[in-house]
Specification:
This protein is an all-alpha fold. It has two domains: about 80 residues, Tetratricopeptide repeat domain (Serine Threonine Protein Phosphatase 5, Tetratricopeptide repeat), CATH 1.25.40.10; about 60 residues, no CATH class. Helix 1 runs antiparallel to helix 7 and helix 7 packs parallel to helix 9. The chain is elongated and about 55 Å long.
Length: about 190
Amino acid sequence: MGLAGVFFGLLVGWIVGSQQTNGRQPPAAVATAAPAQQQQPGGAPAPPPLDEARVSAMRTVAQQNPTDAVTRTQLGNTYFDSGRYQEAAEWYEAALKINGKDVNASTDLGIAYYYMNQADKALAQFDRSLDVDPKHAKTLLNIGIVRAFGKQDLKGASEAWQRVLVVAPGTDEARAAQQALDGVKSAHPEIGKN
């Protein structure tokens, strides 16, 4: 049981960390930082508060530029980083209506769906991401996470993580996938045997 908790913690930490470092700047510093002891259920730190001034400025830019997918993605990222997944999803969806080939926005949308307890919708979105880039390691890693924790499908999760090792050896995603596979093998040795 303890191994499963450590395994889950590693993967959840990776999913959040990888989403936040998806080629974008971290959210602007907030004037009043949240107390260090403030945490969400399960021991995860509370997300930073939403920078309303930054959001307002980006919304203005988005309204003035109806074909600006980048600003819409940045709004999605800002809401995601603040733990406001429904609003993040709305902005990612808006960005993808303009640029449906943005694999990172598509995958981030899938992650937002997962955090909204919509595992099937997340997996469907990840399939769209793979339609754009079949070797997108972040998408494959997250498929494994959603299959393992959202669908309790360790075999499917292991298959996704194996693909990460093949398409992105030596990357952070591959290291996370290997840790996940090691955790599954340790806790469930029957997984992966035919």
